[in-house]
Amino acid sequence: MLNPAILVLLMVSIIISTMLLVAATFAFRILRHWDIQSGSELQLRLERRTYLVSTLLIWAFLFEFLSLLLFIYNAESLSGQFVGAMCATGVLNLNPWGWPTLFLKIAMFFVSAIWLVLNYLDNRGYDYPLIRFKYALLLLALPLVVAETIVQWLHFTEMEPNLITSCCGTLFSADAQGISAEVSGITPAKSIVTLAISAILVIAAGVWVALRGRSGWLLSIMGAAAFVIALLAIISSISLYIYEHPHHHCPFCILKQGHGYVGYFLYIPLFLATALSLSAGFVSPWRKIVSLSQTVAEMLPVISWLALFFFIQFYLTAAWSVWVSRLTMMEVWW
Amino acid sequence: MITILRKQRYFIDYTLGTMMRHKGKSLGLLSVYTMIIFMLASVMLFSHAMRSEAVALLADSPEIIVQRIQAGRSVMVPAEYLQRIGKLRGVTEKRGRLWGYYYDPAVKANYTVMVSEQDNLSINDIVIGAGIARTRGLSVGDYLTLRSHEGKAFSFRVVRLLESESELISSDLLLISSVGYRRLFGIDESYYTDLVLSVRNPREIQKIAEKLTRLLPDSRPILRAEILRTYESLFSWRQGVMLILLLGSVLAFVIFAWDKASGLSAEERKEIGILKAVGWETGEVMRMKFWEGVIISLMAFLIGYLAAYLHVFYTSAGLFEPVLKGWSVLYPSFQLTPSVDGLQLATLFFFTVLPYTLATIVPVWRASITDPDLVMR
């Protein structure tokens, strides 16, 4: 497939993996030789090189963010070229590699966000207290990125234009088999009530963490739970209100122009909020390190408030799309 | 938060100042960068506009076209096939079409001849496209003489010219009455060129095509959705090929950018040395250079894209015209409908800004770790 967007996605993921491989060899040296007390030439060289490597990684991760967006947008626009595909679901279903690519990209999104926050925090401490932890985390991220590159390559090269793929209507339907069907089968009332409870919990946790300036893990756990519940709620009920159709559960069709691109306004805040609340849990434990305690005390509230801001934006968008929808299910669901 | 933003503003302010001081270098880089983006964007905008034009045209075409295949070649369809199809559930309308090509030796060009039902043309009337009118110097009321299959000359009166909005397809089009068509080409009443079927419900199309192949084993149904899909992948494939060809120039640009960024003049080195001597950290020098990259990239992207937009939609891709003009004598002059696609913007951004950024990271880092005493000596 010589589609420009596919070429770009392949190029970006290959470049990012190369950058991470370069950074990983450096990470090994850091883990083995880093000693801030030492004034040896090796240590000086390492210190200088961290600037290069961390800049490389910042760019790599930023482009990783963008490539997630591009990937989804591209899957959406490719759907016209395959028989049976009506939205991104069909394109992801084309071969067994579509969904793993998406999930790996999402995982990389969260890992990158956490890494970037840690990197920022580390640079604020005069003695680089987190450098080993940071680069160890990078070594964990490396397999993810490499796997993503390979899986994405397979996904794009094994696309068969003549294969009839299944559209979202068959995958996300309460009568079908599998996880997507189970999720679609959740009753809307249950999912919306759960969503509301999770919203209250995550906001309470966020406010608590922001005001107390500690226990970021609380926000992380609540944020992760809220993320999962929010995705389930989108599939099982919010999407129904957006499509104004009581049986269409697709989480991708809401990204289409026909629905005012409302999906992007739901997903982008949700993902940002989740990434921020996850990183809150990674920031707060370093409060006890002398060179970081001041920074952590300043940063944790900012992260928490930002996470809350995006969560609330997501909840408001969701509530708004239910509110303006002409679908009324008053007697049936409630 | 506010302090961070303010700090960035000072960085930008300082960077702009530096760039203004080294005008020649910045302008050189900017113009090459802009050129690259202009070229890539022109190709993308042009092929995207062509694709959307094709999609818009096909929107009104019938859902199914039935051709008859004999010995692997498409031949005229007997009119009785319409009866043999009979009543198929879901088909709202079915009819035979008559069309073909006529080679005019006078202008060495092919006309597309088509029978028009709507125009109520009499046997001697024709309607012609703007391309034919231009090359043959015809206007309404003039006569166009065509040689029939037997070698006899037929004179047709031009009753109307087709609007120039649709010139991309109608430039070489010649509309004629069905009697005139049959006389001209010697095709009798019992044949059509192909059959077209309209289907209301898109989900039934596949099934109806299946039934057609069973009813008429020697026929080939062509679905509109198939044509659309083919166009879609054809155009994006072409774009991809163009991009791969242009990748060479992107690479050249990357090397150029790398070279520019690493070949710091003595003055610039001194500047960085002074900055570090007055207390800037390595990270801050890099941030300053980062802003330089952002400013250059954004400016080049904006100017290049805008220029490409004007080039494609206001001059009808004037720079590509010589290549396209080779196609035919009756070359249509047309204005593409402006359309900008978000996916294309993103693709272009990745194709240009990502390589540039990567090319400058290492040189910038090298420059910013220099020790102040080394350069100021």
Properties at a glance:
heterodimer, A: 334 residues, 75% helix, 0% strand, B: 377 residues, alpha+beta, Barwin-like endoglucanases, 2 domains, five-stranded antiparallel beta sheet, 13 helices, elongated
Report on the structure:
- The complex is a heterodimer of chains A (334) and B (377).
- With 334 residues, chain A is mainly alpha-helical.
- Chain A has two domains: 1-166; 167-334, no CATH class.
- Chain A is built from twelve helices and no strands.
- In chain A, helix 8 packs antiparallel against helix 9.
- The model of chain A has no long low-confidence stretch (mean pLDDT 85).
- With 377 residues, chain B is α+β, with helices and mostly antiparallel strands.
- Chain B folds into two domains: 2-58 and 230-376, no CATH class; 64-223, Beta Barrel (Barwin-like endoglucanases).
- In chain B, 56% of the residues lie in helices and 18% in strands.
- Chain B is built from 13 helices and 13 strands.
- Chain B has helices at 2-21, 23-58, 80-85, 130-136, 167-170, 178-185, 205-215, 224-262, 266-277, 282-314, 321-325, 342-368, 372-376, and strands spanning 64-70, 73-75, 77-78, 91-97, 99-104, 109-115, 125-128, 143-147, 153-161, 173-176, 191-192, 194-199, 219-223.
- Chain B has a six-stranded mixed beta sheet. In chain B, strands 1, 2, 4, 12 and 13 form a five-stranded antiparallel beta sheet that branches. A two-stranded antiparallel ribbon of chain B has the order 3-11.
- In chain B, helix 8 (224-262) packs parallel to helix 12.
- Chain B starts with a helix and ends with a helix.
- At the A-B interface, helix 1 and helix 2 of A face helix 8, helix 10 and helix 12 of B.
